[in-house]
Amino acid sequence: MIQQRANFDWMLKDLHDGVPGIEMIVVLSADGLRIARYGGDPDTADRVAAACAGLQSLASAVASEIPNSDGKMKMVLIEINGGYFYLMAAGANAYLAVLSDTFAEPGLMSNRMSDLVARIGAHLTSPPRRNGQAV
């Protein structure tokens, strides 16, 4: 159920177990590479990670248009037919994405995601890459 490059299993499982309705959790780099996942299959997690890279870039562009904003995306919530999608900044060049069903409570989800990022955000980072290699 968990595929990862680092030992994120306990971190992601804690979030999954704490909020009913989570279908998949993906930790990704800013350039859309999957770092870890909980739930779902690897191919789906890779597609979600790639899509999140574009979404966080779009959200940051919109944020830069808001007066007094630093232009950084903090969280995106999308309600879709059948569930919710959450994307939150989680550390240097890393993001936390969650897909849930309609029974997941958005307030509880965002609070639990924020708590997770606050507790272990330093571990949820992705080093900058140049030509596909960590710098």
List the helices and strands and how they pair.
Elements: E1 2-4, H1 9-18, E2 22-29, E3 34-38, H2 42-63, E4 75-80, E5 83-91, E6 94-100, H3 106-120, E7 129-130, E8 133-134
Antiparallel strand pairs: 1-3, 2-3, 2-6, 4-5, 5-6, 7-8
In the residues, how many domains can be counted?
A: 1
Which structural category fits the helices and strands?
alpha+beta
What strand order characterises the main sheet?
1-3-2-6-5-4
The H-and-E topology, N to C, reads as EHEEHEEEHEE
What do you see in this structure?
This is Roadblock/LAMTOR2 domain-containing protein. It holds the Pfam family Robl_LC7. With 135 residues, the protein is of the alpha+beta class. The chain has one domain (2-134): Beta-Lactamase (2-Layer Sandwich), CATH 3.30.450. The protein is built from 3 helices and 8 strands. The protein has helices at 9-18, 42-63, 106-120; strands spanning 2-4, 22-29, 34-38, 75-80, 83-91, 94-100, 129-130, 133-134. β7 and β8 (133-134) form a beta hairpin. The chain is globular and about 35 Å long.
In short:
The protein has 135 residues and is α+β, with helices and mostly antiparallel strands. The protein has three helices and eight strands, in the order βαββαβββαββ.
List keywords for this structure.
3 helices; Beta-Lactamase; single chain; 6-stranded antiparallel beta sheet; alpha+beta; two-stranded antiparallel ribbon
